[in-house]
Sequence to fold (122 residues):
Amino acid sequence: MPSEKQTQETFEKIANDIPGFIACSLVDLDSGMTLGARSARGDFDLTAASAYNSEMVKQKLKIMKALNLQTHIEDMIITLGDQIHLIKVINPGTFVYLAADRASANLAIVRNSVAKHAATLG
Fold:
C-alpha cells in the first residue's frame, strides 16, 4: 500500500499529464472507501463516485465469473457526453478511478498516463 504522500505525488503527475483533469482516486474495491484522492473541481463528489464505481467493478467481476472467463479486468472506460471516466485495476483489491473533461482530454492520453503512473500505487 502506497503512503499518502506517494499517492498524492502520483495523482499530481496524472493531473499534470491530462488536459481537462477533473478528479482521481485510489479506491478499495471491497469497501468502496477512497484511500486517496485529488480533485480539481469542488462540485465533483469523488467519494460517492468512488463508492459507486466499486460496485460496478464488483458486478463486472460477477459477470466474468458467470461466463467462466479466465482473465482479469485491466481497465474500464465510460464515455459520457462531456466526460471520460477510467477505472484502472491496480491489483485484486484496489483500483484508480479518474474523470476528465471530454472536450479537453484525449482517451489515449488518459489511458497512457494512468497506466504509466498507476504502477506506483500497487
Summary: The radius of gyration is 14 Å.
